[in-house]
Design a protein that fits this description.
The complex is a heterodimer of chains A (about 280) and B (about 290). Chain A has about 280 residues and is mainly alpha-helical. Helix content of chain A is about 70%, strand content about 0%. In chain A, helix 1 crosses helix 14 and helix 4 crosses helix 8. In chain A, about 45% of the residues are buried. The mean pLDDT of chain A is about 90. By secondary structure, chain B is an all-alpha fold. Chain B has two domains: about 30 residues; about 250 residues, MetI-like (MetI-like fold), CATH 1.10.3720.10. Helices cover about 70% and strands about 0% of the residues of chain B. In chain B, helix 3 packs parallel to helix 7 and helix 7 packs across helix 9. Chain B is globular, with a radius of gyration of 23 Å. The model of chain B has no long low-confidence stretch (mean pLDDT about 85). Classes of the chains: A mainly alpha (about 280), B mainly alpha (about 290). Chains A and B meet through helix 1, helix 2, helix 4, helix 5 and helix 6 of A and helix 1, helix 4, helix 5, helix 6 and helix 7 of B.
Chain lengths: ~280, ~290
């Protein structure tokens, strides 16, 4: 009995390891091809190891595309978006938990309903709104909504609401007795007590903004004003594609998120669980 | 208390302003546009239900709905069942290395959809792409997946699976870990075998999470845009032209924002209807602890 159990376990581990290797294979081949010259790719195709490793793709890509601009734009957009989300989402979550008033549940219901809204429904009118606000074709079109409420923030607000609900009323009551106002209760009681959730929220906002593709594609037309993720759309033209260059660009575009994931993995798990399960 | 509620305005203001400017008015504006023949550069006039009537008989729009439905059918059930299967293997806290395998399977979810689309376009590319090289080694014929109308949508579905399975797995694992051990012990005493244990104990305890994932997966599937835009541009022969992509093309390539708005409202209604049906159906099989 014990023997069979042990043997089964070994088999399971072997299968899982093979599965994990296959699962990561796509990323590995991207890494390999980014160090392979274009000519080599066309003559001998994909390989498990770069036969003649070269950095030429990393040189070519900065000549062929305004990658430096894209990175700068993405850095500005992502940090401001995250800052905006931090302010607007914590404010809204606080308003949805700390205060009692008519219509609170209505706002919450509205918030949850917006999560179902396809971007396609909003794409056209938002483009026209951005045109009216003179934000179209600037990176501000990707930033300004974050400081208020827009559809992308709904998950964060919901997540923070779950966290704020766990803040004991006795603590905020004690702060009021000490003469604090609601804003001080917010900054001195609520925010310090929910730090792990705030970290999750920041992470989620960073990813949402960095990975956003449709909005840059719709709002921004100048190639120099693009974000990195939006810029990937320029790699694939109708008739041809330079695979080694494209994969190099893709790799550089996903690198920040991959690195964050490798170092902050436990927060990501928390993010999924708290945004998903408690719903 | 009165004073406290004055502060409420400060905290609520950003969301209320944002909701009005960036959610509600665009929504109504879009509804209004759907009754006009407006182009991206203005003009156009009120045409009543004209756009909707046109869509009803428009071959391309209808086939886009069929394509999207086909994609959803390919993706949703397989995502959920594969994730459930993996979660059942990986959930035990005593299982050594479980954290590592969980980390691996979730990884693609942190990548942008467009980069995933590009990576899989490369993997699928005929001749020198990774998968056809493997097939060559094994002396197999590998179809040119993304340029063959029969297989293109399957290719898009595979990329989707690679990305999403880890997300659902993570949710299911959290759910399984919250099932109290006593329940399994009790089932063991009653002499239940593995499959019985799954159907009578595990699945009912997980059903609310499975339901949540089904809803999310369906909504996401019907909105598919980034992957079809990147991997196939809707081709070949419009076989992967999803409604999400068609709306973009209609609005920003054909510049017909009125018609695109009508398309997007049809899509919204489809999504709302499906979600509604799920909620109606859930009473039959979803088990909530509080009931």
């Amino acid at each position: 009995m014990k023997m069979i159990e042990k043997r089964n376990k070994v088999i399971l581990y072997i299968l899982l390891t093979i599965g994990a290797v296959l699962f990561l294979m796509p990323i590995w081949t991207v890494l390999v091809i980014s160090f392979t010259s274009e000519g080599q790719v066309y003559t001998s195709g994909s390989a498990l190891w770069p036969r003649q490793p070269t950095l030429e793709n990393y040189q070519r890509i900065f000549e062929a595309y305004p990658f430096v601009d894209w990175f700068r734009n993405s850095a500005i957009v992502t940090s401001l978006y995250t800052l905006g989300q931090f302010i607007s989402c914590t404010f809204t979550a606080y308003a949805l938990t700390h205060f009692k008033y008519k219509g609170r549940e209505l706002i919450l219901g509205f918030l949850l309903a917006t999560m179902m809204l396809p971007f396609q429904v909003q794409m056209v009118p938002l483009f026209l709104v951005m045109t009216k606000l003179k934000l179209v074709n600037t990176i501000w079109s990707l930033v300004v909504p974050a400081f208020f409420g827009d559809v992308t923030g709904a998950v964060c607000i919901f997540l923070l609401r779950q966290a704020f609900l766990q803040v004991p009323a006795s603590l905020s009551d004690a702060a009021y007795v000490d003469g604090a106002n609601p804003f001080q209760v917010f900054t001195k009681v609520y925010l310090p007590l929910t730090k792990p959730y705030l970290a999750v929220m920041v992470l989620l906002s960073f990813m949402t903004s960095w990975n956003d593709f449709s909005r840059p594609l719709v709002y921004i037309s100048d190639i120099n004003r693009m974000t990195v993720t939006g810029g990937l759309s320029f790699f694939r033209t109708e008739w041809q594609i330079d695979w080694s260059l494209t994969m190099t660009g893709t790799l550089m575009a996903i690198l920040p998120c991959v690195l964050l994931y490798v170092f902050l993995q436990k927060y990501f798990e928390k993010m999924v669980i708290s945004s998903g399960v408690k719903g | 208390m009165k004073k406290k509620n004055r502060w409420l305005f400060l905290f609520l203001a950003p969301y209320v302003i944002g909701a009005c400017v960036f959610i509600i008015s665009p929504l109504f504006y879009s509804l209004y546009l759907s009754f006009t023949s407006r182009s991206l550069f203005g003009g156009g006039q009120f045409v009543g239900l004209g756009n909707y009537g046109y869509l009803f008989s428009d071959e391309i729009f209808r086939s886009s709905l069929v394509n999207t439905a086909y994609y959803a059918v390919l993706v949703v059930p397989s995502e959920i069942s594969i994730a459930l299967l993996i979660a059942l293997v990986l959930h035990k806290e005593t299982f050594k290395g479980g954290t590592f395998f969980r980390a691996v399977i979730f990884m693609p979810f942190v990548l942008s959809l467009i980069s995933i689309g590009l990576v899989w376009s490369w993997l699928f590319s005929p001749g020198f792409g990774f998968l056809s090289q493997i097939a060559d080694l094994l002396n197999l014929e590998f179809p040119s997946v993304l340029t063959d109308a029969r297989y293109a949508m399957i290719g898009v579905a595979v990329a989707t699976l690679w990305r999403n399975v880890g997300y659902y797995t993570t949710i299911f694992i959290a759910g399984l870990q919250s099932v109290p051990d006593e329940l399994f012990d009790a089932a063991k005493v009653d002499g239940a075998n593995g499959l019985q244990k799954f159907w009578n104990v595990t699945f009912p305890m997980m059903s609310s999470m499975v339901f949540f994932c089904l809803v999310i997966a369906t909504i996401w599937a019907w909105q598919v845009f980034d992957l079809t835009y990147t991997m196939t541009k809707g081709g070949p022969a419009r076989s992967t032209l999803s409604t999400g992509l068609l709306i973009y093309n209609t609005a920003f390539i054909d510049n017909q924002v009125g018609r695109a708005s009508a398309q997007s409202w049809v899509l919204l209604i489809v999504i709302l209807t499906l979600t509604g049906l799920y909620f109606l159906g859930q009473k039959k099989w979803v088990y909530y602890e509080n009931d």
